[in-house]
Batch of 2 targets.
Target 1
Amino acid sequence: MTIQKDNAGSVTLVLFSGELDKAMAAFIIATSAASMGMKVNIFFTFWGLNILKKDKARFAGFNIMQRMMNFMNFGTARKLAMTKMNMAGAGPAMLKMMMGQKKVPTLPAFIKMAHEMGVKFYPCEMSMKVMGLTKEDFIDECSEVIGAVSYLSEAKDSNVNLFI
Amino acid sequence: MTIQKDNAGSVTLVLFSGELDKAMAAFIIATSAASMGMKVNIFFTFWGLNILKKDKARFAGFNIMQRMMNFMNFGTARKLAMTKMNMAGAGPAMLKMMMGQKKVPTLPAFIKMAHEMGVKFYPCEMSMKVMGLTKEDFIDECSEVIGAVSYLSEAKDSNVNLFI
Amino acid sequence: MTIQKDNAGSVTLVLFSGELDKAMAAFIIATSAASMGMKVNIFFTFWGLNILKKDKARFAGFNIMQRMMNFMNFGTARKLAMTKMNMAGAGPAMLKMMMGQKKVPTLPAFIKMAHEMGVKFYPCEMSMKVMGLTKEDFIDECSEVIGAVSYLSEAKDSNVNLFI
């Protein structure tokens, strides 16, 4: 747990995208900011919720439509597609292999590290409702479920706001 | 029309994307901010201009290239594709159905609501020129056409800036 | 070189995307801000690094994986794909033709102009390492290679932060 320095500032990210490359970018920024003593909050919404899903939560959802949505909306932090070129999974596999060779942590390692550094993960209430997900579908590192108003209360006093 | 509270802050969004899911995210943030008394401006640029198009404006454009661009650049607020999975329109239809079941407003309803709450919609001058669109192609809720300099004048004093 | 006005504020962009349309949006914002006397920094990361590549740098990389990544991760500022519709290059060609007709500068012209106006281009250290790129692969307009911490030090005091 990093001690937050006074006046170190804060970063609030909206993580809308569920692709591996964008998630990596978000966690690189989040952990770098936390290492500088900045307060960091990530608001996970829409496809970004996939990043917080437990591996077994893949077919969650109360009705058939939601189950289909979650199926298509595939992936957890271990298995995300990429913005460009997926090619039957070859793109993400290559990125992971190259990051491994360069000693860049994997996404699940980044999530754990960010959590230990004090980065907060907030799932978006409305997206969860639409997708039929509950707090139980998410990893334990997750903080409480919040809505857009709570996100904005935090964001309006942040030094850096990004939509990823 | 919401009364803007002093010091409630402001939100300025660049809406570059024309997909339904990103547009929904933008309007959820915009209406939530307006409900908190924040000043909200949305600058619509590139594909985001589709969101402001009247239903019948689909084949606007002064020459054949622009007409093709507008045709490919398909959709109005009623008929947008999604970032992921389109599957002959099944993705957006599912999202709409699920949002309907959960009583989340549709995009045209969100646009109307945002306008009534005082959110301002500014179409980007340069994108309009490139795409051969004029102010007449857009819905009546639209404010005046502005350029990037006007956008930045607003953005530099905003609490929350996002590129969506 | 534009003289920076006191209190004109600053803009810091993360350019993650390598598509032509997003790159154009970033450079329109950057040059507009510079014309207002604002300080402008662009941090190029992931696919955004393509925009900085020299034309001949296309197959850079120290090993076969990196070479494949760079091949797929195709393009330099002269040859970028678009977010939507690529259609064997017809989309970007159309956009370029239409922008040409409307006297909007091309991306290489925008890069040169932005540089002359004092906009700084910083390539992201970690992305370069993963992709096996070195400073020599980039155009001369490029400033020094920096990491996420340096980006955040700049971003936290900026008026406008965007992730594109």
Note: Chain C has one domain: 14-163.
Target 2
Amino acid sequence: MQKKIIDLTHTINGKMTVYPNTLKPSFEPSNTIERDGFAELKLTMATHTGTHIDAPCHLIKGEKALSDFPLDKFIGKAIVIDCERKDEISLELLKSRENDINEVEFVLFRSGWSRKWEEKDYFGKYPVLTAEAAQWLSEFKLKAVGFDYVSVDAMDASKLPNHRILLSKDILIIENLTCLNKLPETEFDFYAIPLKIENADGSPVRAFAELIR
Amino acid sequence: MQKKIIDLTHTINGKMTVYPNTLKPSFEPSNTIERDGFAELKLTMATHTGTHIDAPCHLIKGEKALSDFPLDKFIGKAIVIDCERKDEISLELLKSRENDINEVEFVLFRSGWSRKWEEKDYFGKYPVLTAEAAQWLSEFKLKAVGFDYVSVDAMDASKLPNHRILLSKDILIIENLTCLNKLPETEFDFYAIPLKIENADGSPVRAFAELIR
């Protein structure tokens, strides 16, 4: 049984795209081969740097941190739903995939927006779940939903309503995915693996699909 | 097909064990719900914090960084070899498992040392690969080797010879694993998933086994 791994993660570096008014990651030598005999970098980044996952306490005080979930929460069956060239992700679009959504633990939305990574336009008008679509989706037994753009809410949605609808049901949110065009049309094994940070409101993840070939 | 996930990773927090003379991780609010409407933590840690993986350039200038390997490098079949209550990991011990080692991509060594995590004695005399055992092991087609203690070399081995023997063959080194006592005696699927940091000499990982039940 041969596995094919598809990496769905943006590279973390000093010039990467970050959400407006949040921390840019940086890297500096902490130990060096010359001085210490081995090299280590000091990493400075945020819990929401790059491809990452949001825990409920990212928005809602007193709700769960990432470390309140077992690792199993970040692994399961997934499908991808195409929303390229759409103005929004409508209830109608979701209902057309209801049977598939019922069978999986993760739904990923492919807008093609990851092609704009490191461009200013990345923070433009990507297709967002409508309020009724977010509400309908939140009734499923999903572990998380994922997007190839920066936020489950529109850039001008200051109260972040879709975040609240999903996180209040412990449906986690994966943002800044990439390479979703490499995924099959049918169900696949999906992983969004965070660091094991105590009480974190989120974590950078290594997201990938594992296909049997 | 039901999967069982066994997490083999220490929790990252401010009081965790770190290698002598290296950076302690720290966490502080970077964005807050009160001020920004959402919470993010600023993470400061090293590329070798907690359960982590070493790339060749951790010790050898000009050799490969972690980002030079595809994600596939961190996933594969593994066995665990028991070295509890042994003074060293001898060639004889390894040879007794030669057939098994030939079948896998990862060999994990279980000394029981992870029980001393957060104790001073963690940096004591754990059982280390002898030079001939490390050399013999480096001839296999392994992706990485892993340990439930802090280093593939003894604490007083200033030149880190076992690191050099393995890393020069692109066999990566996973250190500070935990819970290896929960693993089966036979082969299993193993993951040591790093962050996707450009040109890093290592990365904290989320290490886990996936068992079919």
Note: The radius of gyration of chain A is 17 Å.
